Amino acid sequence: MSNDSKPEAGEYAGANAEQRRNWNEVSGPAWVAENERIGAQIRPFGLPALARVQAAAGHRVLDVGCGGGETTLALGESVGTHGSAHGVDVSRPLLDLAEARASRAGAANVTFELADAQTAALPEGGFDRLFSRFGVMFFQDPVVAFTNLRRALKRDARMAFVCWRSLDDNPWMKAPMAAAAKHIDVPRPEPHAPGPMAFADAQRTRGILERAGFREVAFEPFDAPMNVGGGLDDLDDTVTFMTRIGPTASLLRQAAPEARAAAITAIREVLSAFHGPSGVVMPASVWVVTAVNG
Ligand SMILES: C[S@@+](CC[C@H](N)C(=O)[O-])C[C@H]1O[C@@H](n2cnc3c(N)ncnc32)[C@H](O)[C@@H]1O
Are 267 and 248 in contact (CB under 8 A)? Predict the structure, then answer.
């Protein structure tokens, strides 16, 4: 298994180096700081996949890209004391949060591991279920990654994960990005590059999973209004949240101060149209993907 300490800055090499750097140095710490709000924002989108994975008493469940461990803890509860939930993630800061949460909750059947799901030496046939909430779209080589993950499953074991559909289906991401693009450099999105939208194309994702050896691959769209910032009332707080988390935040970080300020004003204007008594609520859309090993 991968080593268990946080890599030194600049020490990232090999598979998924850029993602590992990002989730340890940039996005990971931002997700730790905003974890409660992010949890509230994305929780409704993870629930259908949690239901579809059908984790039951006694199961051993693998949670891929588990982040701060919210879903790993939920899975641990579903499988009871005779089962277990194991979260793997490349982000030391997010795993520190996950471990602290599990210890506070006294969740003795929940464990975490600093490991790249694409290359981790997971126990062969060690798991009955595989779950992920937005944690499987960052692999440099998704076929290799899912082949590795499938080997960790028992025969006929079930997998369920949730991933974003296209930018067009997700105005909560597209609209602020388009507003920012009037002031800062927004590169043309590469649809299949590792990142939040990498699995938006269901046909391509089906091919990846089938080549990795999964069968009965199914895609179910789930659309719901998203509470941006997880229920923040104040528009300015929500804009600040958006400058810290997500794809627009990554672009803003690289912008010159004046352009960044203008982009933030433009984002505020767009979000204000969706601001009401429950905060900023915008349409969002995901795929709930299910499959079976073998
Ligand atoms: C969008 S976050 C989702 C986190 C968590 N599942 C949640 O719903 O709160 C994506 C997570 O995937 C992790 N990740 C990215 N690439 C990974 C890889 N190759 N192996 C394991 N985890 C990875 C990141 O560190 C991050 O925690």
Answer: yes
